[in-house]
Each structure stands twice: as structure tokens, then as C-alpha cells.
Amino acid sequence: MLRVGASRLARAAAARSAGSRLHLRFKTTDTSGALGIKEALGAKIPAAIADVKAVREAYGDEQLGTCTVTQAYGGMRSVKAMTYETSLLDAEEGIRFRGLTLPECQAQLPRAAGGAEPLPEGIFWLLLTGDVPTDAQVHALREEFASRSTLPAEAVAVIDALPTDMHPMTQLNAGVLALQPQSAMAAAYAKGVHKSTYWEYCLDDALTLLAQLPEVAARIYRRSFHDGSMTPSAAGELDMGANYARMMGFEDPKFDELMRLYLTIHADHEGGNVSAHAVRLVGSALSDPFLSFSGGLAGLAGPLHGLANQEVLRWLMEMKESLGTTKMTKEALTGLVWDVLNAGKVVPGFGHAVLRKTDPRYTCQREFALKHMPDDEMFRMVSMLYEVVPAVLTEQGKVKNPYPNVDAHSGVLLRHYGLTEARYYTVMFGVSRAIGTLASLVWDRALGLPIERPKSVTTGWIKAHFEGKK
Ligand SMILES: CC(=O)SCCNC(=O)CCNC(=O)[C@H](O)C(C)(C)COP(=O)(O)OP(=O)(O)OC[C@H]1O[C@@H](n2cnc3c(N)ncnc32)[C@H](O)[C@@H]1OP(=O)(O)O
Ligand SMILES: O=C([O-])CC(=O)C(=O)O
């Protein structure tokens, strides 16, 4: 009996490893003595699992936070109720990717020759593994992406069938769903692989999605705003930022640098923001990374989240038009800001749910503008708004943070280089947000996080529960 049991176990183990070979398509394993991305991550997972186990054993019964009735009605603001490993946001200082501030990422991560901005592949490596990659590792990852970059013909057909006046974010989401049939995770689950291997399939899908997303996004841009013709992908030769720029039709090396900066700063913003949380939530049902990321994109398309970058540029253009030949002064802009508030609307690009100071992502972009386009007229307007809006919002007395966020600045940089179609801007945010949310999703599966299912209550329940306590 015992021998039969042992051989059954051996057969199950063999089936598991055959299953994991069947659908995984990692190209690089070991390059120039540097571990490939799967091996580098795989080497980290056992210790991370042990760490989480030890933390749960030591502190499992401690209170992380509380949730008041106000917080339950108020978007759960400040409730500490989830973990998220790839980045952490400080209300005053802003985001850190695996412990590094954005300027530290700019200083420490591999860059293009002669460039100053991190390569997007390096940001993914950092977020996923927690380590600053070497040039060889970034190169190997680029090759890995290149080997997966060809879009399936069926997905191209889906994208090409979409109305060109459909919002680009809706097109992007349809494009991502059209990539989903390639999912290794979905196929592996259907086959019944062991749950300890889910992360491998999740990583496989994350790499495929990241490899194909820039071309999907560029295709949407070319179809919606140009004649649909497109420079073929040079994945493998160019980094993700430059390749995306080229496929959209931009040739200026400074725009390549802007793309690298853009893809870096929008990648991740800890776990509770709408897009990251949606990816986590959908993924917790073991929906594959394509489906999970689609959920995140749907949230990013909202005007209080990623779509704010489109809204900012639209508003700046409206202000420019309404000023006409009137000189742009602080007084004139102050009046226009009050007009927005008096109309019961939000001032796009200002305020934040967590941050309480100027967003360092805004500051990075401002520094880029000061270096490369100090005399740009729209940059001057953005700079003047920086002096005007916080005072107006403070005087109005409602907002918790009157300072600008990332979206207040990105549009004028893109516009300066000729990317003037504001309706497209959130698509670029989406391409970047895939880097962080997918890295995190791989960890969700590696750590075996369960399905998310917080408890909700009704207003009647609250009344009944607290009746007599006051
Ligand atoms: C990548 C990103 O997602 S960054 C954020 C991008 N979004 C924007 O830029 C849109 C403009 N900003 C906002 O709408 C908000 O500041 C948010 C959504 C970012 C954060 O919302 P909250 O955490 O609820 O902000 P806060 O607690 O300060 O809100 C208090 C009040 O001030 C209002 N408020 C907040 N920001 C603004 C603003 N920029 N303009 C006008 N009113 C504002 C809120 O709507 C709320 O009003 P209410 O009490 O009538 O409902
Ligand atoms: O953190 C948030 O709530 C919104 C944000 O800035 C982001 O997701 O980049």
C-alpha cells in the first residue's frame, strides 16, 4: 500500500513538472552569469513565503488599523487592510519602489546610452525581484519580451474592428481582452496544475502582456489619430520606451527619454489605488493576468484616477482659449480656477487620496520640463497654476491636499513633442501601470493570497448595531 502511495505521489510530481513545462515559454534562463527573470524571482520566493509566515505568526493578532463608520462610507480612506510588496507610499514623501525614491531609481537603474531616465525593463525587474538589475539582466529581459512580442492575428483583428472614435481606453481594454486566449495561467488552471506553481504561469502571462501591450497601445494611437499605418516593432533592438515611441511615430530621442520617464513614474503607487486594487481583487478569484489587468484598466479610465491626465490638458486648452489675447496672469488664472469650483467640478490634477504634499512624480516631470522645454507656453501655464491652485483650494477649505498630482503635468510634456491627442493620454498611463500591477500580481500568486472578500454591512445594520451605545 505504502509503495503504491509513494508512486502515486511521484506520478503527481512528474505530472506537475510536465504541466509546468507544457505552457511556460520562458526564453532566458541564465545570461552572462546573470540569472534570468524567472530564476531571479524563483530564488526569492521561498524566503519571502517564510518571512510572511513568520510575520503572521508573530503579529497575526495585532491590530493593523481600525475602520470607523465614517471610513466605511468614505472609500475606506487610510484603513490599513491590505499588504502590497512592490511599492509603498508615504503621505509626505511620495512613492518608493522597493524602498527607492524616484530620484534614487533615476540614479541607480540602468539607462539607455547617453540617457538620464531608467529603462522600463529595469523598473519591472526592480519591482518584481526587489533588486536593482544589472545591464545584462535588463538586456536579457528585453530579449525575453522580444520573443513574446508578436501580436496574435486574432487580437489584431479585434483591435482593427473597433470604431476609431471609441475612447482609446475602451479600445485598450478590448485589446487586452483580445490577448487573453494566450493565457498560460488559464490553460494551466484548466489542466489542474499544483497551486504552488501558479506564480510561474502568472509571470509567464505578465511577460507576454507587457511584451505586447506597447504595440496594442501604439496601434490604437495610429488607428484613432492617424491613418492606421505603423512603424513595425523593433522589440529587442530598442527598449520598451523607445520602441513604443517609434511605433507611435515619434523619432526624437528626447521623446524616447520622456517615454522612459513616463513609463517609470506611472508604474506603481502601492496597493490601494483603484487600478492596482482592481487588478489584485480580480486576480484573487484566480482570474488570469489578462482579465485582472483589464479590471485595473477599467478603473484607470475614470476621471478621478488615470483619466485626470486627459482632463488636465482639456482644461488647460479651455483656459488658453478663454484667455484669448488677455495676458496670462495669476489673477486671471485664479478667476478661472474659481469658475471650476463654483460650477461644482473638481480641479483636475490637484488633490490626492493619500498624498499630502506635492507629488514627487509631478516634481520629476517639472524637472524634465525645466531641462528640456523651459520656454514652452503650456509649461508656463502649468507652472503658474502651481502657484495659484493650492491657494484657491486652501481658501475653499474642502480638500485635504491642495497640491498637484502626477496628472497635472504629464499632458504638457507629451504635447510639447507633438503628442497632442489628450484622449489618448490615459492609454500611456495604462501601459506603465501594467509594469507595477503585474509584478505585484505575480507576488500575490507566489504568496498564495486568498480570494478577497471583505465584510459589508447595511446602514440598517449600523443603526441596529450601535443603538443604545450612545
Ligand atoms: C493617478 C491619480 O489617480 S492621481 C488623482 C487624479 N485625479 C484628479 O486629479 C482629480 C481631481 N482630484 C480629486 O478629485 C481628488 O483630490 C481625489 C479623487 C484625487 C482624491 O479624493 P479624496 O481623497 O476624496 O479627496 P479629499 O478628501 O481631499 O476630498 C474632500 C473634498 O474636496 C473635494 N476635492 C478634492 N480634490 C479636489 C479638487 N482637485 N478640486 C475640487 N475639489 C476637490 C472632494 O471632491 C471632496 O468634496 P466633497 O466633500 O464635496 O465630496
Ligand atoms: O494612489 C492613488 O490613489 C492614485 C495615484 O496617484 C495612482 O494610482 O498613481
UniProtKB/TrEMBL annotation:
The keyword Transferase applies. GO terms for biological process: carbohydrate metabolic process; citrate metabolic process; tricarboxylic acid cycle. Keywords: Transferase. One of its GO terms (molecular function) is acyltransferase activity, acyl groups converted into alkyl on transfer. One of its GO terms (cellular component) is mitochondrial matrix. The keyword S-adenosyl-L-methionine does not apply. SUPFAM superfamilies: Citrate synthase. It comes from the Eukaryota. The active site is at H305, H352, D407. InterPro entries: Citrate_synth-like_lrg_a-sub (IPR016142), Citrate_synth-like_sm_a-sub (IPR016143), Citrate_synthase (IPR002020), Citrate_synthase_AS (IPR019810), Citrate_synthase_euk (IPR010109), Citrate_synthase_sf (IPR036969). NCBIfam families: cit_synth_euk, PRK09569.1. Belongs to the citrate synthase family. This is Citrate synthase.
